[in-house]
Design brief:
It is a single chain. Helices cover 42% and strands 17% of the residues. It has 8 helices and 10 strands. Strands 3-2-1-4-8-6-9 form a 7-stranded mixed beta sheet, with helices on both faces. Helix 6 runs parallel beside helix 8 and helix 7 (244-272) packs antiparallel against helix 8 (277-301). The two termini are 40 Å apart.
């Protein structure tokens, strides 16, 4: 009997990126004994891909694709709707990919083969980032970390992942994304809980997707805002899982160190910039990043939401 694998894509106001993503999925090598289908969840108050727009996109693809709408703005709402949509098609496996990414033709084949070989229920692969313009010299870009395929992991993002339907099905673990985490870390939290529930999770080193990074995402303000958001959501996640008192004991000393050394580095970098511009800028922005992380942690402890994802990069 063939197995069913459903690929879920969440999208919002990025029709060109979504089309490129779906075109890449349509070129996937179909693993033996596996049926593929795609579900797309549009996270916007008013859907763009309705009626004729959805039909036009479907006609371009050879794989069956189904469109759904989630009007509540927020990534965990869209992701949970995507899980529900995928389950409607009776899958054995569910894959998640972002709308600003494109898969390699052997992406699913590599993830599924690794799960079968290593008897895993979750497989996470690397993302190759394609920058529209270079990031500033002071920014430490995320680099691919090569690890042997089959390496056990304890957390994963949703930008390149395959999971057994048992993890989300009602007669399995029945897991969903925490809808309180509307401003980040909902994916890391989800897979940490999956690991804690006994799901074996592995890294697949050669199952690549490519992510387009628009120029708007590497401006100084946007980069600093992302650091602030990540620190906010990380602290808020700990508040939800371990309580505010325990989170405060962990983060308040860390926040104090980050704020103190961040302020010191910013001042020294500012003074140094006129005589050693590149070195001074690097120290100055290192300090600002520390300040963003420290203030973000405090924001998360207070449970205050962040608006980073209110701005949509790309089209």
């Amino acid at each position: 009997m063939n197995q069913k694998l459903v690929i879920a894509v969440c999208t919002a106001q990025r029709p060109k990126m979504l089309q490129a993503c779906l075109d890449s999925l349509d070129k996937l090598i179909q693993p033996d004994g596996t049926e593929l289908a795609i579900v797309v969840v549009e996270n916007d108050p008013v859907p763009h891909f309705a009626g004729q727009a959805a039909e036009d996109m479907k006609t371009r693809l050879s794989l069956p694709v189904f469109f759904y709408h989630e009007k509540r703005k927020g990534i965990p709402f869209a992701r949970n709707t995507a899980l529900e949509a995928a389950l409607e098609h009776g899958p054995d496996w569910i894959a998640l990919i972002d709308d600003d990414e494109r898969s390699e033709p052997d992406w699913i084949e590599k993830l599924l083969a690794a799960c079968r070989e290593h008897r895993a229920e979750v497989a996470n692969g690397p993302v190759r980032r394609i920058y529209e313009q270079p990031a500033p010299h002071w920014w430490k870009s995320q680099l691919l970390k090569s690890r042997p395929t089959g390496t056990v992991i304890t957390e994963a993002p949703t930008n390149n992942v395959l999971l057994s339907a048992r993890i989300v099905s009602r007669d399995g673990l029945g897991m969903r994304f925490d809808e309180r985490l509307t401003f980040g870390s909902e994916d890391i939290d989800f897979f940490r809980r999956a690991h804690a529930a006994g799901a074996k999770m592995i890294w697949v080193d050669d199952a690549f997707v490519e992510e387009d990074i628009p120029a708007s995402r590497v401006t100084t303000g946007r980069l600093l805002s992302r650091m602030h958001m990540a620190a906010t959501s990380g602290a808020f996640n700990i508040v939800l899982r371990e309580g505010r008192a325990k989170a405060a004991l962990h983060f308040i000393p860390k926040c104090s160190r980050r704020m103190f050394f961040g302020l010191l580095a910013t001042i020294i970098g500012f003074v140094l910039k006129p005589v050693a511009r590149k070195r001074g800028e690097k120290l100055y922005y290192y300090g600002l990043i520390r300040l963003m992380k420290g203030s973000g942690n405090l924001r998360g402890l207070l449970g205050r939401a962040h608006n980073y994802y209110d701005v949509i990069d790309g089209n």
